[in-house]
Amino acid sequence: MDRSTQPRTIKQYKAMYEKGTVNFDHVMQRSYGHWDIKQQSKWIHSLAINWPVPQIMARPMKETVTINGKEQLMNVYYMLEGKQRSLSTFYFLDDEYKLSPKTKPAKIDGIEYEMADKSFSELDEEVQEAILSYSLSIMSVDATDEEVEELFFRWNSGSPLNKTQQGRAIMGTDWAIRFDELSNHPFIKEKSSFSATELKRATHEEAFKQTMLVLDTNDDASSFSAPSLLDYTERFKEDSENKLAIFQHFLPVFDYLDVAFDKKEKVLFKKIHFPASFIAGKYALDNDIHPEEFYDWAQQFKHDFNKPESATIKTKYKDFMGQGSTHKAKVFGRISEMTRHLESYFTNKKFVNTDLIEILKKRKVRNT
């Protein structure tokens, strides 16, 4: 298999497409339309600010092309990789869609130009020129049909990033470091309900974000689903002071829970229960409830919601599980029911908590 790489500006590349020497109909290519407006806008913005982008790959094949009424034998480049990027660019240049209202300004030569909610013709000339003059790297692959099939298999056999993993790039390095600190806490690694596979897929980070969203009075998101959490991640930088204040609650509560549970808690800290159980732990810590007493309550709560016929304290917690469990009403319903159960359990109880601070110190945990 031979390969070579040639640079082409966006303007030159579109001219090839219009001339008929670029073709996106290779049988192995998926259909156009898999990108939403946010993905298209991110791509166009990358071109405008001259950021590095992945190369485009094509298989050249000799075909007869009619140009200016004359038939010519030329290389037609059948695109193997880059269809969504290419057509998103061409359609934008033809004013077939506007960029997302959330598109950031393009900074060119130290000057910022607005791009949000604009078509190509509505952009400033400087931005138009930056896009048209962007130099793409196009790799030509001289390969057999069998080799092309093998290429597609290899390109698509990797594990794609899920929404939570994508969020790391969006939240930035500082927040990724903070989430690593939470992920590496002994409570998460040794006591929480997340399996090894879930930890690899960053399922626990999705639970962290759901919990942050519960505590976040600056945000009114109606869903706690993965796509909604990805949108929430985008707001970390613009609301950093508030988000950091929310983050400060996590480590002290994790420290408390690490003391309360001496082994893996297989139920309450699964993803679906995590926000409610975290809020319960925070309530206990804030009210000086002894970790051992909190553990005893946790066992009672599990019994009461799993076996309502013999429950000591009746709870409707299960009514807020099942289908649509990431909807705001169900998330807050679970939190409300778990907190109500916790408060009922500890009503009129007397505690001897003078040794709580010493327990935390001995375990080398935080007391802040």
Automatic annotation (TrEMBL):
Superkingdom, natural source: Bacteria
Name of the protein in question = Uncharacterized protein
Organism from which the protein derives = Alkalicoccobacillus gibsonii
